[in-house]
Structure formats: C-alpha cells, structure tokens
Queue: 3 jobs
Job 1
Amino acid sequence: MLMFLVRHAESTWNPMKKIQGQRDPQLSKYGKKEAGLLAKRFKELSFDAVYASPLKRAYQTAEIVVGKKTPVIREAGLNEISLGEWEGKTLRSIRKEYGETFDRWAVRPTRIRVPGGEDFKAFVKRVKHTLRAIEASHKGGNVLVVCHGGVISTYATLVLNLPPDDVWCLTVKHASLTIVEVGADLHKLITFNDIGHLMGLGGFKATEVTHVD
C-alpha cells in the first residue's frame, strides 16, 4: 500500500505566525490556491480511501484535493498536537512569555510539556496508533491522509526509526506531499516534503523553529 500524506495548506492564522495546535481556523485564499495545485497533481491518481483531520484547515484541503471523487473520512487521531496555553499566540509572544520552556521544547519535546497541552510522548503514541490502524485497514492500493506538520514529522520518525526528539529536524511545508510504501515487515519513505507542485506560487520563506500548527 502507498500512503500519501499531505500537510494542510496555509490557514488564515499561518501568515500571522499564530500557533494553532487544535484551534480551528480555516484555509486562507492562498491556501486554497495551494490545495488547488495539489488537486491538479493528483488528477490522474485514484485513492481507495481518503482520511483527514477534522480540523478545518486539513479537512478543507482534503475536500479541494479529491473533490467529490472519494468521500473524506474524518479521523480525530490525525489532529495536531494540543499546545494548550500557546494556542492562539504568536511565536514572538510565546518566546517572550515562556522563554526557556519554549526553547527546550523546540529541541527536546519529550522532556517538556507545554502548559495545558498534550504530552508529546502521548502524542507520538496517538499518531502511531492512528496510522497503524489505517495501514491495517488497507492492505493495498493508494490511501490519502491529510493532516498536520507535527503528525507527518512524527510518522516519519517512526518510519525511519529516529528518536522522537528528532522530530523538528524534519521540515514539512504547507500542502507538501510525503509518500510512504507500507509493507508487512518494512516501511519505506519514498518522498518527503515534496513541494514541486507549488513552485509556481513562489514566496517560500525560512522555516520557523517549530512548524506545528
């Protein structure tokens, strides 16, 4: 089975550099353009199933990508990590208010819990359980999963057998494509963070310390 993982397109909060976590802003106009380019990329490809995080920015991306060809299954296990008190705040204000806590979390997330947020180790278990369940439900074919940067980065660390704390070494851009070949005994990372379909839009910027949003 081939699993096609897509990070949601740009939301209305992304240009403001607001941390979203499990908050629920919708796609921006630019984000809808990104999703439209993904739809063109997948025009000749059919999916046996499509799963998406119920959060608007992911679910709307999935709807644009597949149109009415395939029903989109809402899967809460694909939600982004809850970032508690940081949600709705800008990176600048978080750094100012939480300083050392944020810096330590951005390097070793398993050792720091975001105030009021989800424990990172529990998040890793959730991602693993959810995606393994999707894998088990589809022994062959193509499956599309539209979710969030933290979810895709975490899944990649599981596929590559990397320590969970290495998660932020993996950049996942908006509307990017990651492909994993799922085998009985071995998972293979075929493509990671592919944004070739977006090159015509331009405007790419340096990645922030954390892309969990």
Note: The mean pLDDT is 93.
Job 2
Amino acid sequence: MLLPELREKVLETCLQMLRDGLSRVSEGNVSARHPGSGFIVITPSAIPYAKMTVEDLCIITADRKLIEGGWKPTSEIALHTLIYTRRPDVQAVVHTHAPYCSLFAVSGEPLPMVLTESAMLLGGDVPVAPYFTPGSEELARATAEALIDRPAALMANHGAISVGPDLESAYAATLAAEDTARMVCLLRSMNAPIHALPPETTARLRSAYLEKYRPTKA
C-alpha cells in the first residue's frame, strides 16, 4: 500500500471533522500531497468517514490519474488538483460544510477578521468564491482563484475550504474560519458592534505567526 502514513493523517483529519461538527457522514473532502512523489492522497466519493479505512483512500496524480485505490475519488477532484497545480506551497486541502462558515457562504459575505488568533492563522478577510455546480471545472477555477494568496475561502451556497503546507495547518485554518464566523453571528445576535482588526494589524499578526510560532526549547 502506497503512502500509509499520509493515508493515516488524511483519515484522522476526516474523523476530526466529524468530531468537531464541521461535516456529517461523507460531506466535504480532504487531500494531502506527498512532497517526494507528488502523489495525492484523497478521499473517495460517498463513503462515510466513520466507516472509512486507510485502504479506502485513493492515490492520484496531479493530472487525476488513479494510481491506487478501489473506489472513485471525490467528485471535487478537479478542485483539489487545480489548487495543487496553482499553489506549489500547498500540500493539503480541507473542504468542509462547517455550519457557521456555510451561513456566510450562503449570504455571500466575506468573513472579517475579529479575532487575534484567527488573524494569525488566516491573515485577512476570508473571501467568497462565486457559485458553480459542485464538482465542475468552473467551481475548481473560481475557488482556486479565491485561494490564490490565502489559506481559506468560502464557496458560495456550499461551504468552506482551507489549504496549508500540511494537514495540521490546513485544518487549523478551517477551525479559525469557523470560529470567526460563529463569533460574528453571536455578536449580531446581541446587536453588538463588530470591530474588525485593521488590515495592517492583521498582516503584522500573520507575519509574526509565520516567523515565530513554533515549539522552542527553554
């Protein structure tokens, strides 16, 4: 079996989405690119995450050729492969139907940066890619464009998508976007003002996070 360790990480991310309430049954999709071979581990279509095994995951190439796996890859295969093609810095893609992010995806409203930690992880407002049919080439292009210089975006009337240099980073961006969306919804339910962080502050927080946030021995 190819790439067993990367398969384990992809499956664990899928199960974490269930535990965190960001997707249900088989909603969304996850992939990770192996930096050595360039092969992509990606979730199959329609198999519930709770029943999925590492053997169920598919191994594909950037041009969508199935290398290993007994199931058809996710219908969003075009989305994942196009992101990897356009973003050589990205090694993981996480697409969820996170409920609060989905509210903003339906409204077509970008997420403002209201939380310090989210600003560090996201680096700026989270844009909304225009609606296209799920699984289509048009959706892949529109979403990849929204992600051209960002770690997260919303997909109109659909959900959220995050990317990163590894699965941990991509999933952290997913959580940051959902935390932000939930906070803004709660503020509005209180009729409270929303004070977004200035862009220069957000940029400074993001830069500091990328440069300094790592385990350091005393």
Note: The mean pLDDT is 96.
Job 3
Amino acid sequence: MHRKHSLLDLLAGRRSTPSLQLSGPGPTDAELDAMLREAVRVPDHGKLAPWRVIAIRDADVARFGEWTAAHHAAVDPTLPDAAREKDRLRYAHASCVLVVVASVTPGHKVPECEQLLSAGCVAFSLLLAAHGLGFAAQWLTGWAAYDAAVHDQLGLAPNENIVGFIHIGRSTVEPPERVRPDPTAKLTHWSPA
C-alpha cells in the first residue's frame, strides 16, 4: 500500500511549536472537522468515548487569555505583572485552541486511568492531524488546566478534567528538532526465567 505521506514520516516530522510562535490563520471549519474526525479514532476500551473537545477560536482565544489572566490575578493579588502578562499572552497567538476534556465515568468496569489515557490519545491525535494538514501546534496545560473556576468557565461537569489545550496556527519560525531519548535505552526485552 502506497501513501503520499507515510505515518512514520508524519511522526518523524512532528514538532511542538511554542504557542508564542504561532499566528493565524487557523483551521477552517472543514479542516477542524477533518482533524476531529481523525482524532477520535483512538483506543477506547468499552466504547465510552470518555472525552470531548471545546473549540476556542479567533477573537475568543484572546478573550479567554484576558479572562484567565484576570482570574489568576484575582485569586493571587501578589501575582507579579510578568506572570499576569504571561497568562494573557499564553492564548494570544494561536487562532485556534482546542481544549481536550476527559469525561471519565467513575466506577465503570473500564478503569479511570484507561479512560484518561484515551483522552490523552485524542490530544496527541489532534497534534498529528494538525501537522498533517500543514499547521503548527503545541499541547499545553499549565495552572489553568487544573483550576476549578476555569473548569466552570468552560462548562465542565464534576467528572471532567482538562487533558490539555492544543494551540493550533501557523508557525512564524521553523521549529528546531530537540534532543530525543535513545529509544534503545528505553526498550527492554522480557523472557521467562
């Protein structure tokens, strides 16, 4: 079977582009739909689909950054101006931020950690899908991913948590390759004693 770009080529070429080095335009509605259609093709024990995605796009990305910066400053009045500015700018560059949410079913026969891992696979698949369509992207969390008021602002249910914010746009620079671990050093072989 021959393909224009092999999956291994796609994986080898994927880089995280720092969100500060992203700009517009972001994905069109059709491109976003294509990314989501492929991203949900993940391992999902029990067919629970224990995840969902919230899209924050265009001007709403900057509004979300302004809101998170103001919220963080209200929670911590001693927050330095530089930290507040970092919060604000964290969402100022990408024209599309996808919030990947784990919607875990507690007490289900499928362990919660497997449900969470499935949601993590959606986040990584979104990175790959964005890269495959020619976009640059970065998966971030930060304090906002774990903040109850942010969860409320995004409409999360009590059984939901943010797996990550996937920032998507166009890269303003070529992201460099970083040093990767030697895969052979991370591989062991088991055999019965």
Note: Strands lie at 22-23, 51-57, 96-103, 136-140, 160-171.
